[in-house]
Design a protein that fits this description.
- About 55% of the residues lie in helices and about 5% in strands.
- By secondary structure, the protein is mostly helical.
- The protein is built from 11 helices and 5 strands; from the N terminus they run βααββββααααααααα.
- It has helices spanning about 5-20, 25-30, 95-110, 120-140, 145-165, 170-180, 190-215, 230-245, 260-270, 270-275, 285-295; strands at about 1-5, 45, 60, 70-75, 80-85.
- Helix 7 crosses helix 8.
- The structure holds fe (ii) ion.
- The site of fe (ii) ion has 4 residues, from helix 3.
- Fe (ii) ion binds near residues 104, 108 and 173.
Length: about 300
């Protein structure tokens, strides 16, 4: 299976690779977690964006349109055998995509360094990812052909993919997948960027020591004290709006009346419960509702 593209094409290729090795199953079996494949044909990923990290990990995200589910699948057998990460293939990414894919990479590590499965390894990678994106995203926006900037943004997304393969993910991805499940036209990175400040506000009191360190390149001066939660959230929001992320979900077409459905999807979409269970603070319906309401 040779998968060429950004996250979605490579992830579709990963699922197809499991079907080629398990011809009695279909995509719905795999994507609804009715069947967990243990074999796949060898995968070669030719990556065309600097956000996904899928070229180096076991994850695949797919949408099941009829029930608006967008689960995150994790199978050992879909690690690519070979991947090509070539920054020269990314110099034509439009500015919006340049921003949103790098915001995806940053979110991978903000989560990977604060889950219940976080480790010194995922935390160390997270620090480097935030540092590199903060430094090189403005350069890539200014000059899309800047190969050095594209190289380091691609390197950052790759090690972010490794970081969350180890440290896993929690609230931000679990709450974004319902957004782009309902509105497939919503860029994953845009949805993540809109909701992450509200999540930082909620988890900072539990993870202030790690977040103060990891976020330092974009929110300098944090000490890790619980009462900095608002400051940290505002600082991350300021950085995100500065690079071009919309300020709220209304800008992406959502209304307050959507919150109940989004909360339901966060708790019923296959696999997202695992992510919610990895949150450093208990992911209650009240918490999830509050995060969506804040984002709207
Ligand atoms: Fe992501």
């Amino acid at each position: 299976m040779i998968a060429i593209g950004g996250g979605s094409p490579i992830d579709a290729g990963k699922v197809a690779a499991t079907l080629l090795a398990n011809p009695d199953k279909n995509a719905r079996d795999v994507c609804s977690l009715g069947f967990a494949p243990e074999t796949a044909v060898p995968i070669v990923a030719v990556n065309l964006t600097h956000g996904t990290g899928t070229e180096v990990n076991r994850f695949a995200v797919v949408t099941i349109p009829e029930n608006e589910f967008k689960p995150a699948l994790a199978f050992e057998c879909v690690y690519p055998a070979y991947s090509i990460d070539d920054p020269a293939l990314m110099t034509k990414l439009p500015e919006r995509q340049t921003v949103f894919v790098s915001v995806d990479a940053v979110n991978h590590v903000i989560e990977a360094c604060t889950t219940k499965a976080a480790s010194p390894y995922s935390i160390g990678l997270a620090k480097e990812v935030v540092r590199l994106v903060a430094k090189y995203l403005p350069a890539a926006k200014k000059n899309p052909s800047d190969l050095r900037a594209r190289y380091f943004l691609l390197y950052a997304s790759m090690i972010a993919g490794i970081a969350f393969d180890n440290g896993l993910l929690h609230l931000t991805h679990a709450l974004e997948h319902p957004l782009s499940g309902v509105r497939p036209e919503l860029a994953h990175g845009s949805g993540l960027g809109i909701i992450v400040p509200g999540i930082i506000r909620e988890i900072y009191p539990a993870k202030g020591d790690v977040l103060a360190d990891v976020l330092a390149p974009i929110v300098p001066g944090l000490k890790g004290a619980a009462d900095e939660a608002e400051l940290a959230a505002a600082g991350v929001r300021a950085w995100l709006t500065g690079v071009g992320v919309p300020e709220n979900l209304r800008a992406e077409g959502f209304v307050a009346g959507d919150v109940g459905k989004l909360v339901d999807l966060a708790f019923t979409t296959p696999s997202l419960g695992v992510l919610l269970g990895l949150s450093p603070v208990e992911a209650t319906r009240e918490l999830v509702t509050r995060i969506y309401q804040t984002a709207i």
